[in-house]
Design goal:
three-stranded parallel beta sheet
Amino acid sequence: MPACRWGFFHVVNNDYNKWEMYAIGGSMNPTIISQGNRFRAPDNVHAKEVTHRDHFHRKVWKHWRWRTVNDLFLNGLR
C-alpha cells in the first residue's frame, strides 16, 4: 500500500483488499489524488481505515489535499 510522505501522488485504477492497517497513508503534507480505485475493507473491524494521516492531529491534516474521484468503497464501517 502506498505511504506518501512529501509531494504529489496520483493513485489510479488499483484494487485494494485485505490490508492490515490502512490502504493509503500519508505524512508531511502530501497531495494525494485517488482515482478509479476499488477499496474492499477486510473483515477485521480495527483495519477498515482507508486513509491514514500519520502522527498528526486533525487540525493539522485537515488542510492536506487528499481527493477521491470515482473510487468505490466496499465493506467499510457505517
